[in-house]
Structure formats: structure tokens, C-alpha cells
Amino acid sequence: MTARVTLVRGDLTEQHADALVNAANSSLLGGGGVDGALHRRGGPEILADCRRLRAGPYGKGLPTGQAVATTAGKLAAAHVIHTVGPVWSATDDRSALLASCYRESLRTAAALGARTVAFPAISTGAYRWPMADAARIAVRAVRDALAADPGTVREVRFVLFDETAYRAFEDALAAEG
Ligand code: AR6
Predict the structure, then answer these.
(1) What is the per-residue pLDDT across 82-97, written as a single tens digit (0 to 9) for each?
(2) Strand 79-84 vs strand 67-71: parallel, antiparallel, or unpaired?
(3) What is the overall mean pLDDT for the chain?
(4) Which of 3, 72, 89, 95 is most buried, by CB atoms within 10 Å?
């Protein structure tokens, strides 16, 4: 069975899904944007899990482009998958790292048996990646990963916070066919 890619305009923290992907930073200890919102709504259990990861396998933090799962606390999901997007650079092409966030998050989700996975537009806020370009990279990375091996994943949902983001993802999906 093939997996669907869907778009919704809304707040990631209100989504019902098996896994919600967090646009985190390497510290895993919280921040603003989606990260702050997920921790606020999910409650302290998420941060407690993140601290355990820092005390154990991720002593130096989570590298850019990688992903790791924790509990979702009080969120309407089984897991939060934390990934670290690259900071936008006009001089250095970091698009492979941004694609890696989507691919590694989906791999992590499938390893947990997740069927529905919801993503924000990683790196397009504090990390300043231009929306249209980020949307193209995100859609291509997800389509490629699902085509290669969807595992248990049946729906990938992009959750876009505003109309500009929604339109950019709509255009990127249409362009991919
Ligand atoms: N639901 C969906 N999308 C959201 C929400 C929400 N509740 N809140 C913001 N967005 P950002 P980044 C959009 O800054 O660029 C944090 O401090 C937002 O409009 O959350 O990857 C971390 O700790 C934007 O389009 O993530 C890191 O330090 C997109 O989500 C750093 O920011 C991503 O914006 C990561 O920066």
C-alpha cells in the first residue's frame, strides 16, 4: 500500500498522529517556535526524556540532520521525534542536511511502527530557510523516502502554520506530481 502525503493548515501541537516531529535544536532541551509549543502542551515528561538522552547516548547533543524519539507526554500522539534542521546559509548548500531530517524522522517513525507522522516546516522559522525552497526539499525528501521504503508509515502530514507556508507546500506537491 502506498503512503499518502497530506497538507493541513494549523498547529502541530493539536494534531492527532502516531508521531509528531519536532524542529528541535542540538541541545534537545527546548527552545521557541514549534519546539517550545510542543514542550508546553506535552508537559514535562518530554523534557525528562530529552534529559535522559543527553545523559546517555546523546551526551554531545543531537547532530544536525539526525532524529531521535521520546514520549509525547500529554500530546495526542504516541511519540515526539526530535530532529535538528540546518540553519539557512546563503553561501553553503545545506539542503542535504534538511532532506536528512525528513528521511531520518521517517526512518525513526517506521522503527516505532508509526502509521501517521506529522511534520512542521523544519528550519523555516528561527533557522530562516526560505519557505518555497524548504517546501521543495521537504516534499522531495518525503516522497523519496516513502518510495524507497515506507515501512509502517501510511500518512505523512505537513502541518503548516500560515497561509504562505501552506501555499508553498501545495506548490511543491503539485510540482512533484
Ligand atoms: N505548529 C506548526 N508550525 C509552527 C508552530 C506550530 N505550533 N509554531 C511555529 N511553527 P521554528 P526552526 C512554524 O522556529 O526554524 C527553536 O527555538 C514556523 O512558522 O519552530 O527549525 C528550536 O529550539 C516555521 O514555519 O523551527 C531551535 O532552536 C516552522 O514552524 C530553532 O527554533 C519552523 O519554525 C529551530 O528553528
Answers:
(1) 999 999 999 999 999 9
(2) antiparallel
(3) 97
(4) 72
The answer, yes or no, to whether any atom of ligand 1 lies below 6 A from the CB of 121, is yes
Q: Whose CA is nearest to atom 18 of ligand 1?
A: 125
For CA atoms 18, 108, 143, 118, the dihedral sign is positive
What is the mean predicted confidence (pLDDT) over 137-142? 98
The CATH number that domain 4-176 falls under is 3.40.220.10
What's the sign of the alpha-carbon dihedral 105, 112, 110, 172?
negative
- CA-nearest of 84, 169, 156 to 119 is 156
Has residue 1 got a pLDDT over 70? no
Q: Does ligand 1 lie within 6 Å of residue 159's CB atom?
A: yes
Query: How close is the Cα of 31 to the center of ligand 1, in Å?
Result: 9
pLDDT at 176: 85
Domain ranges for the chain: 4-176
